[in-house]
Specification:
Layout lengths: L11 H11 L4 H5 L14 H4 L9 H15 L1 E6 L4 E5 L3 H13 L2 H11 L2 H22 L6 H10 L6 H18 L7 H12 L4 H4 L12 E2 L5 E3 L7 H13 L13 H15 L6 H15 L11 H4 L3 H12 L6 H38 L2 H4 L2 H12 L7 H8 L3 H13 L3 E6 L2 E6 L2 H9 L1
Antiparallel strand pairs: 1-2, 3-4, 5-6
Helix pairs in contact: 1-4, 5-17, 7-8, 7-9, 7-17, 9-10, 9-14, 10-14, 12-13, 13-14, 16-17, 19-21, 20-21
Length: 454
């Protein structure tokens, strides 16, 4: 169990008064703690903070100073629970860095720039789809699905029907991510939340999940690894009314950077993630809906690259830290900084992984292009074959027929057929029969290199 902060921390004036009475000579030492973060920029919860107070100083007095400093810098977010306790947060260095990275690397514009820089649309699209699958699989594994990533990817790529409840969960998460993308233009509503849950949980175990239906009882709790309750969600009777208020807050515009009410879209998305976990409106599947709503809000605000940034892959590596970030907030006057900062740390690593995948894709393409020239393959191609090869390599067309090559190159049918069959003979293209017509396609880069080097 975590160590909860002292209750009723003394007001700033009282803290100074106590220090003056007990240890006036240590006032300078205590004042070092009058800041929201430590010397390393960490926003420590009391559970960790208590061990980092210098010897000879009283922890509760140092904490009182730190808490007072934090409260003076709080930014208001949204009220949660039956008592409508206001959540607050502070812009820490980690949070600011994550916002900056999202703005630079995860917007719709930056994704379009990456795609144009790559220039190999099929290759890049394949890579991106692979990352979408990573999120669906990892989010399910975070909830306990035991299916291996390799088997799950095979199921999604081949579009085969799931065979087990765990595979059904993964497919449900995949559908939920698609639902979040397809409905990104809609405002948040009770109906959207219910539909999202139904999309992700239907036909897995309807008795357990009750798809698209809020829980009707209060016998739901969040438990730790030992099965001990760590969070009792607010009452079931007020779920719909409370979620209506959350939706109203989510739909309220906080985009005016000149306003004191400004909240960055990523912070709001993380708040939605937290709010659903806190409310626990469903009997099961709350974590998946919470993470999907995070993505939905990012999509809504033109952060399209988040379709391919898998946060659950990293969350599942440290599920205890994920759970503690909820607890630190709940046990410290709903200070959401703990949860926001943890999520921002995860987002920073996820964006970094996304950028690495892009760089590797770009490097692979450049390497292949160099190989095409240095191997002598390009010199073997006729002028017409070079045109077809470049079109195939760019991804602008996946399949070619003699008829469309004839039309696009302005040559005879026989010349077009000879051009395509020549690419097959060179080990660059493959072909298959489709009715009376032959369909030609470019082989995978590794296969082309293998054919040419034999």
């Amino acid at each position: 169990m975590i160590k909860r902060p002292p209750k009723n921390e003394p007001f700033l004036g009282n803290v100074f008064e106590q220090i003056s009475k007990k240890s006036p000579e240590k006032l300078g030492n205590y004042l070092e703690y009058y800041q929201p973060v430590d010397s390393k920029g960490r926003y420590l919860p009391f559970d960790e903070y208590q061990y980092r107070v210098a010897s000879g100083l009283e922890v509760h007095l140092a904490w009182g100073l730190t808490k007072a400093s934090r409260m003076s810098q709080y930014m208001k977010l949204l009220p949660l629970g039956d008592d409508e306790i206001l959540c607050n947060f502070i812009l820490t260095p980690t949070i600011q860095k994550a916002i900056s990275h999202a703005d630079r690397h995860a917007t719709t514009g930056s994704l379009e720039w990456m795609s144009s820089k790559i220039g190999e649309e099929n290759h890049f699209e394949y890579l991106l789809n692979d990352l979408i699958e990573d999120e669906a699989i990892s989010s399910s594994q975070l909830e306990g699905a035991a299916t291996t990533t390799l088997i799950a990817k095979d199921m999604l790529k081949r579009k085969r029907k799931p065979r087990t409840p765990d595979e059904k969960m993964i497919l449900g998460n995949f559908k939920m991510m698609k639902f979040a993308w397809d409905n990104r233009k809609k405002p948040l509503s009770i109906e959207l939340i219910l539909d999202m849950h139904r999309e992700g949980t239907e036909d897995i175990d309807n008795g357990k999940y009750t798809p698209g239906v809020f829980r009707q009882t209060d016998d739901v709790a969040v438990v730790d690894a030992e099965g001990e309750p760590v969070h009792m969600p607010p009452s079931a009777s007020g779920i719909e009314a409370r979620l209506e208020k959350i939706a109203l807050w989510a739909n309220t515009c906080h985009d005016d950077a000149d306003s004191s009410e400004y909240i960055h879209p990523m912070i709001k998305a993380i708040c939605l993630h937290f709010a659903i976990g806190f409310e626990h409106p469903f009997r099961d599947g709350n974590g998946r809906v919470a993470r999907s709503l995070f993505y939905w809000y990012m999509f809504k605000n033109d952060y399209a690259a988040f379709r391919y940034i898998a946060i659950s892959t990293l969350l599942k590596l440290a599920p205890i830290k994920y759970g503690k970030s909820y607890l630190y907030t709940e046990t410290d006057d709903m200070d959401l900084t703990y949860f926001v900062e943890y999520q921002c740390g995860v987002i920073l690593r996820a964006i970094s992984n996304f950028k690495d995948a892009y760089k590797k894709s770009l490097s692979d393409i450049e390497s292949f292009n160099n190989w095409v020239w240095e191997s002598g393959l390009y010199k073997k191609l006729s002028e017409k074959q070079k045109v077809v090869f470049q079109v195939a390599k760019s991804g602008r067309a996946k399949y070619f027929t003699a008829a469309n090559v004839k039309e696009n190159l302005g040559c005879s049918y026989n010349t077009a057929a000879s051009t395509l069959n020549g690419l097959v003979d060179l080990g660059v293209f493959g072909k298959k029969k489709n009715g009376r017509e032959w369909l030609f396609h470019m082989l995978e880069k590794q296969e082309i290199q293998g054919n040419w080097e034999r």
